[in-house]
């Protein structure tokens, strides 16, 4: 079974044409991989479908815009994967 990172990296590569070998757990989706907001919405849709969850992107953006959280908490791939794993655990309970 593929890890969360491998699955997310594959989705990003397929959805945004970023080469898979450029995607690391330390990559920031927008800053490093240059994924625009529209492509990120496509990515989140695919993540939602693949993992059976609903990423709270609007809440995340609100927290970042209000200065409550750093964007890195949600948009660095390793951190995004941790958010996905937490949501999957919550859904399974």
Helix content: 55-70%
| Rg from alpha-carbon coordinates | 12 Å
Number of helices: 5
Structural class: mainly alpha
Averaged pLDDT: 93
**Poorly predicted runs:** none
Strand tally: 0
Shape category: globular
- Largest sheet properties: none
Beta-strand proportion: under 5%
Describe this structure in words.
By secondary structure, the protein is mainly alpha-helical. It has five helices and no strands. The protein has helices spanning 4-16, 37-51, 57-65, 72-75, 77-92. Helix 1 (4-16) crosses helix 5.
Summary of the model, kept short:
The chain is mainly α and 93 residues long. It has five helices and no strands.
Secondary structure elements and pairings:
Layout: H1 4-16, H2 37-51, H3 57-65, H4 72-75, H5 77-92
Helix pairs in contact: 1-2, 1-5
Features:
single chain; 93 residues; mainly alpha; 61% helix
């Amino acid at each position: 079974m593929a890890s969360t990172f491998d699955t997310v990296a594959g989705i990003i590569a397929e959805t945004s044409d970023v080469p898979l070998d450029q995607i690391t757990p330390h990559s920031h989706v927008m800053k490093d991989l240059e994924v625009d907001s529209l492509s990120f919405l496509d990515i989140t849709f695919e993540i939602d479908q693949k993992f059976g969850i609903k990423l709270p992107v609007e809440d995340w953006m609100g927290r970042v815009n209000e200065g409550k959280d750093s964007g890195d908490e949600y948009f660095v791939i390793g951190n995004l994967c941790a958010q996905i794993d937490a949501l999957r655990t919550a859904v399974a309970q």
